Amino acid sequence: MKTGIKLILNVLDLGEDGDGIAKVNENFCVYIPNSCPGDKVSVEITESYKSYAKAKILKILNFSKLRTKPLCRFVEVCGGCQIQQMKYFSQLELKKKIVENCLKNFGIKVEEILPSENVFRYRNKALIPVSEDVNGEIIAGIYEKNSHNIINCPDCKIGVEENAEIVKTVISHLKKFGIKPYNEKTCQGVLRHILIRKGFFTGELMVSLIINAMELPYENELAKTLTEKNKNIKTVCITPNLLNTNVINGKEFRTVYGGGFITDFIGKVKFKISPLSFFQINPLQTVRLYKKVLEFAALTGKETVFDLYCGVGTISLFLAGKAKKVYGVEIIPQAIENARENAALNGISNADFFCGNADEIVFDLVENKQVKADVVVVDPPRKGCSEELLKTVIKLQPKTFVYVSCNPESLARDLKVLTSNGFVLKKVQPVDMFPHTVHVETVCLLTFSF
Questions:
Q1: Alpha-carbon span 332 to 358, nearest angstrom
Q2: pLDDT at 15
Q3: Most Cβ neighbours (<10 Å): which of 158, 172, 366, 440?
Q4: Can you tell me the distance from the alpha carbon of 214 to that of 30, in angstroms, rounded to the nearest whole number?
Q5: Closest CA to 194 of 206, 185, 204, 184
Q6: DSSP code of residue 317
Q7: What confidence tier does 251 reach under pLDDT thresholds 50, 70, 90?
Q8: What 3-state DSSP class applies to 285?
Q9: How far apart are CA 256 and CA 250, in angstroms?
Q10: Whole-angstrom Cα distance, residue 342 to residue 253?
């Protein structure tokens, strides 16, 4: 099939990337972004391969009952929200189906997905690129799908309402003092990105300016203007990044105003959040996710818990209130430093954190210090658990193992290893952390069959 061909197709299903699926015949599929099952669409083929093609919608001839009007007018060109055109209950059904398809060989019932309390304005972090358009006007917003072209959209609808006013203030500052935004092609200009973080439970705001320099001209004046306009802005930071790479953040930051951090809560646990800290994006839903982890761990106060991808200690500290002892392990030194700071901030004395490879740390705890893990928790990155970590968990033989996954495909791969080595999969609970995207979190409970 040649590119440029126009077809009228019926959308039958959705793929795991959120694209609608139509069929030309039994052996040839067409993937159509921004479509819904039940749509009848006029499309143009944009890419063609041996057994499938990709197409763009020219016109929707018949609208699916699953379809709704997106709140964002940039949804078709942005790509950040792959399924905002679907009613929310349909999004939940799709995500549950994705998990079911990945775990179909395990013979386990997948529980109903836990919906997000907020479906818009749920992100506590915005990373907003800044540039100039063809007319030399300063723009800020979001990247166009599959490119580094910036769409002028300072108010992404899944971000907090404060973002737009902060971006407006920063751009006014650039114009007032003749400061150029960064140009990726020439590597000239100063301001690259505006990072905004909000504590949902405290209301505190942070603004961090990522720049192609060591200093932003008149940065103290900007901090003064920002904090006068919004009293909830507790800190303004500068993060230099002089590298010509796709890495957005720099490695260090300095504080122009405030203490260099904001605070927020997960449950009753308070956390300090810096411009470089990892913190869950959807804080309201994070509480529901962690409560499910706590439920599966079934702690009575007598258990020793190993958290083997502990990050900044969010899960570890959430569980510490119900456990006898928690040991958190993470390979990133700064994350462990943050975890220890957060433990001290909350007066939590029964959580210890170690930096290094999990297998080496666990070996020392078990063999040299005679620590036995009753419960093991992991929350790995999208690629899933390393082979070495899975071997470590299998050697530990904990009575309870809780796996938190952000990728059903890598989850299925790891569960196959675990269930082939004595573990039994008991429960699977999907959680919607990111409405309007195809991403889904899954919490699994496994027990070891002695």
A1: 11
A2: 85
A3: 440
A4: 49
A5: 206
A6: H
A7: confident
A8: helix
A9: 16
A10: 19
What is the b/e burial string over 8-42, where b = at least 16 CB atoms within 10 angstroms of the residue's CB?
A: ebebeebbeebbbbbeeeeeebbbbbbbbbbbbbe
pLDDT band at 93 (very low <50, low <70, confident <90, very high): very high
Instruction: Check if the beta carbon of residue 40 is closer than 8 Å to that of residue 32.
Output: no
Q: Which two tokens stand for residue 409?
A: 């495909």
369-380 exposure pattern, b = at least 16 Cβ within 10 A, e = fewer = eeeebbbbbbbb
- Active-site residue (options: 72, 156, 406, 444): 406
Known catalytic residue at 406: yes
Instruction: Give pTM, 2 decimals.
Output: 0.92
Q: How many CB atoms lie within 10 A of CB 213?
A: 16
Beta-bridge mates of residue 127: 195
Query: CA-CA distance, 335 to 379, in Å (whole number)?
Result: 14
Structural tokens at position 241: 């990044």
Which class would CATH give 93-118+282-448? alpha beta
C-alpha dist (Å) from residue 436 to 86, 99, 288: 8, 16, 18
Closest-CA residue to 376 (of 358, 349, 403, 352): 403
Q: Say which CATH architecture domain 6-67 belongs to.
A: Beta Barrel (2.40)
Helices marked H in 236-311 = 283-297
CATH 2.40.50.1070 is the classification of domain 125-273: yes
Tell me the CB-side half-sphere exposure of residue 151, using CA atoms within 13 A. 18
For the chain, the structural domain boundaries read: 6-67, 93-118+282-448, 125-273
Q: Identical fold at 93-118+282-448 and 125-273?
A: no
